[in-house]
Amino acid sequence: MKKHWYDYLWIWSIVYFALGFFNILFAWLGMIDFLIPLGFAIFGGNKGFCNHFCGRGQLFAKLGGQLKCSRGRATPRFLTSRGFRYGFLVFFLIMFGNMVFQTYLVGAGAASFRETIKLFWTIRVPWGWTYTAGMVPNWIAQYSFGLYSLMLTSLLIGLIVMVFYKPRSWCAFCPMGTMTQGICRIRAKVTKSQRS
Q: What is the count of structural domains for the chain?
């Protein structure tokens, strides 16, 4: 099978987390993984990003499939159920909203700036070596720590389910995948109603 340039986007996932490990401000690059899939869904009406351009999904496929780091068991039904997928999306959006709110509080001077990463939304890990105070306004750095926390947590969840189940089991309940699928369905209904 012929390889395309986008078959190597798994490298992007590694580069992203490596850059954030050394300088937290690179975490802002993670917005690419939020905005591009939404663009595909809103303007294209498809999940092309998930199917071809998601570096994280490719990384799980490479580690779990090619490097045999996965047991390859079937993904449990509850992880693929509509209730779990949309429940996880709502939870994810709440956590994202909380991160944005914390950033706002830091920017408004109502909360103190914290140089920590929150794993699994609860475990605080000191991450101060990745940022020199005063480089940018505190709210920009705070958003970086929050976004990197979100991205790293979702990577770890994906790696855990990859080991126990099929390599791309994360994709079955990925919040971005669920959100873009919902957008595509709404867009298809709107387009259908406009034609009739």
A: 1
CA nearest to 153, candidates 17, 12, 9: 17
pTM across the whole model: 0.89
Residue type, 150: L
CA–CA separation, 113 and 94 (whole Å): 21
* Tokens found for residue 2: 């012929």
Contact status, residue 127 vs residue 115, Cβ threshold 8 Å: yes
- 93-117, pLDDT tens digit by residue? 999 999 999 999 999 988 888 888 8
Q: Which residues contact 63 (CB under 8 A, 6 or more apart)?
A: 69, 70, 159, 162, 167
Domain that includes residue 171, residue range: 5-195
Q: Examine the pLDDT at 196 and tell me if it is beyond 70.
A: no
